[in-house]
Design goal:
Arc Repressor Mutant, subunit A; alpha+beta; globular; two-stranded antiparallel ribbon; 90 residues; 5 strands; disordered C terminus
């Protein structure tokens, strides 16, 4: 997975999708997840980073990450590279 290259994310948590013109406000945790995806971290690495940086239960963090990633995919903020590459092969 990767963040769509048309996404701009400010330090204050303002997210802008240049392709669609949509904008969103992202909290500190959401902002951190997007940064970690940009660093090519997988779900386990994202979970480890968040557990180190924020006080939370491991199970809840993992569940929240999976839910948030689904949400980001729906908004076309992140792209599932496996899905994209299979589309180009057909």
């Amino acid at each position: 997975m990767k963040v769509d290259p048309h996404i701009a994310l400010s330090e204050s948590g303002f997210l802008f999708h240049a392709s669609t013109g949509d904008s969103y406000s992202v909290n500190e945790v959401g902002q951190r997840i997007i940064q970690l995806i940009r660093e090519k971290k997988n779900i386990e690495a994202i979970k480890a980073e968040l557990l180190e940086e924020f006080e939370a239960e491991a199970e809840q963090v993992e569940e929240d990450i999976v839910d948030y990633l689904q949400f980001l995919k729906q908004l076309k903020i992140i792209i599932d590279e496996n899905l994209e590459s299979s589309r180009h092969r057909t």
